[in-house]
Design a protein that fits this description.
Length: 163
C-alpha cells in the first residue's frame, strides 16, 4: 500500500478571507481533511512545514523544504505550495533522489465556492502514484517538469514553455 507524505507550505490554496480585516490570511491546510473526506485507499501523513505566501518564500525556506522532503522516509511526496514561487521550489527539490515529488497549489483559495484546489489536489494524488521518480508540478489538469513550465498570469494558468 502506498504511503503518501504530504507537506504544506501555505499559499493561496489555504487562504481564508476575514471580512472585518478586509484581507486574506493563510488558514489551516485543506489537504488532510480533503483526503480523509474522500476516503482515499492509501495511508497518508500531513505535515505543515510553514504557512506563508510564496511571494515571501526565501532560499532559506526552500532549503528547509528540501531538507524535510529529503529526510522523509516516504517515496511518494505531495507538497501544497503557493503558485508564485512554486517553480523555484520545484527546481530546488531536483537534488532529492529516489522519490516522486509533486507540487500543487491553487489560483483561487479552496474556501471559495469556485476554485481549482480540489481539482489540483486530485490530479496530484493520481500523478504522484503513477510518475517515475523526479519532481513535477501539477496544475490546471496538466503535469509539468520544473524546467518546462511557466505561470501565465494573464491567462491565470500554468503552461508548458514554448521552445
Amino acid at each position: 500500500m502506498m504511503k503518501l507524505a504530504v507537506f504544506t507550505t501555505g499559499g493561496t490554496i489555504d487562504k481564508i478571507y476575514f471580512d472585518q480585516k478586509s484581507e486574506y490570511e493563510i488558514g489551516d491546510a485543506i489537504v488532510g481533511p480533503l483526503l480523509t473526506s474522500m476516503n482515499v485507499g492509501f495511508e497518508f501523513a500531513v505535515e505543515e512545514i510553514m504557512k506563508i505566501d510564496s511571494l515571501d518564500m526565501t532560499d532559506a525556506h526552500r532549503t528547509e523544504i528540501v531538507n524535510r522532503v529529503g529526510a522523509c522516509p516516504a517515496e511518494r511526496v505531495l507538497i501544497t505550495h503557493g503558485t508564485d514561487s512554486m517553480i523555484a521550489t520545484a527546481k530546488a527539490l531536483s537534488v532529492v533522489e529516489g522519490k516522486t515529488i509533486v507540487l500543487t497549489g491553487a489560483l483561487q483559495p479552496a474556501a471559495f465556492a469556485h476554485n481549482d484546489a480540489v481539482f489540483n489536489i486530485g490530479g496530484s494524488v493520481a500523478a504522484v502514484q503513477s510518475l517515475p521518480h523526479g519532481v513535477y508540478i501539477v496544475m490546471n489538469g496538466l503535469v509539468f517538469t520544473p524546467d518546462a513550465v511557466v505561470k501565465n498570469r494573464d491567462e491565470n494558468r500554468f503552461e508548458s514553455v514554448v521552445s
